[in-house]
Amino acid sequence: MTRNSIDQARGILMERFQMTAEHAFALLTRASREANVELRDLALRLIDAGDTAAR
Fold first, then answer.
1. Domains of the chain
2. Which of 8, 19, 30, 35 fits as disulfide partner to 23, beta carbons 3.0 to 4.6 Å?
């Protein structure tokens, strides 16, 4: 589940901001580190926010 969540969050960033997979992952890891939040938790937040925005 964790890897799928991170991959899904990375895909959201890639699609919305037209970035490479590497750049999206770097952005996720940096945001995780700076916010002191586990990467999987940040990914789940991004997925949830994306689901809410799509409605």
1. 2-54 (1.10.10.10)
2. 19
Identify the band that residue 1 occupies on the pLDDT scale cut at 50, 70 and 90: low
Residue 20 CB-density burial (10 A; 0-12 exposed, 13-18 middle, 19+ buried): exposed
As a residue count, the chain comes to 55
Residue 46: pLDDT over 80: yes
Per-residue confidence (pLDDT) for residue 13, from 0 to 100: 96
| CA neighbor of 26 nearest in space, from 45, 9, 1 | 9
- Give the ranges where the chain is alpha helix by DSSP (H): 2-17, 21-35, 39-54
Phi-psi region of 24 (alpha: psi -120 to 50; beta: other; left: phi over 0): alpha
